[in-house]
Amino acid sequence: MESSRRQQAQSDLGMNFEREDLKRNAALAKEQERVEKKQAKREQMMNRSSYRMMVKTAKYMDKYYLDPLIGLIPGGVGDTISSLVALPFIYYSLCVVKSIPLTLAVIYNILIDVMLGAIPVIGNVFDIFKRSYVENLRLITGYIEDDKEIISKVRKKAFATALLIAVVCFLIYWVVRAAIAFFHMLF
Q1: pTM value?
Q2: What are the phi and psi torsion angles at 62 (to 5°)?
Q3: Which candidate, 171, 71, 77, 164, places its Cα nearest to that of 123?
Q4: Considering only CA atoms, which of 119, 163, 112 is closest in space to residue 133?
């Protein structure tokens, strides 16, 4: 009887715990559904053939040093091939993850790799130590897995990255011109 009086008093005061419990449980169920959808989307993104191709590309280009070996092809051809191999990273960040800041960061890493790789002789040494493919895979995977640190880092640098891309493009132009002049002097 006491509990019914308590329930009546609580109801008179607008304290309906059953209704609050139902609302809380509905909100928890909705949140759980959102988390499950997000997890399913992550799994779907990581099971795509383009993602698996990026993992293999990063492995072969950086871990097995294929990038510096391709860079040995003279006349900028090796660096052009190397940058074309990076296109799946741009596609994935732009079309699958759908993040402009992430895409800018990926492009920036690729341009830095191209610029450093274009420096005659020394560029191949830089390619050994500059792991742009692994870095791009880390950024993309961080976005897919909701790594707050990576997302925050890339978003904060989005504007600066866009400016740096313009500067790097300008520098690539001059490095390539210098490399061409260097090869003309040798031959």
Answers
A1: 0.74
A2: -105, -45
A3: 71
A4: 112
